[in-house]
Amino acid sequence: QVQLVESGGGLVQAGGSLRLSCAASGGTFSSYPMAWFRQAPGKERAFVATISPLSGSTTFYADSVQGRFTISRDNAKNTVYLQMNSLKPEDTAVYYCAADVSGSWKEPQDWYYWGQGTQVTVSS
Questions:
Q1: Strand ranges, E, within the chain
Q2: For the residues of 14-31, what is the DSSP string, one character each?
């Protein structure tokens, strides 16, 4: 069983930056694809970014964050990161990390393990 704990959320002004972290335990972290999703109030959980297992050489991003967000992983620390730059008010959401997917990496229901989420609020 894999446990995921997110951190790094907070309140930031538009144009600012935040780095989210997701620490994993209880599994073979390096072997899992990892992802970040977000859920804004009244909306469904939406894909943000994903990174391939092992070297993390392959990444994909939602169009809305492409060029502003960067996903990365440190297998020695069992941690995946989301660097968020040029933040916008519409980035306000609870951000979740997820591990191990079977199916479409864009679909939240296809991911096996989830963290509890961390709130990101971007003020205008």
A1: 3-7, 10-13, 18-25, 34-39, 46-51, 59-61, 69-74, 79-84, 93-101, 111-114, 118-123
A2: TT--EEEEEEEESS-GGG
| Rounded to 5°, angle at Cα 57 from 89 and 84 | 15
Among the listed residues 56, 2, 62, the one whose alpha carbon sits nearest the alpha carbon of residue 29: 2
Q: Please provide the DSSP assignment of 92-109 as one string.
A: -EEEEEEEEESS-TT-GG
The two three-digit tokens of residue 13, written as one number = 């002004």
Half-sphere exposure in the Cβ direction for 71 (13 Å, CA): 28
Q: Rounded CA gap, 41 and 113, in Å? A: 22
Contact call for residues 49 and 65 (beta carbons, < 8 A): yes
30-82 pLDDT, tens digit per residue, is 999 999 999 999 999 999 999 999 999 999 999 999 999 999 999 999 999 99
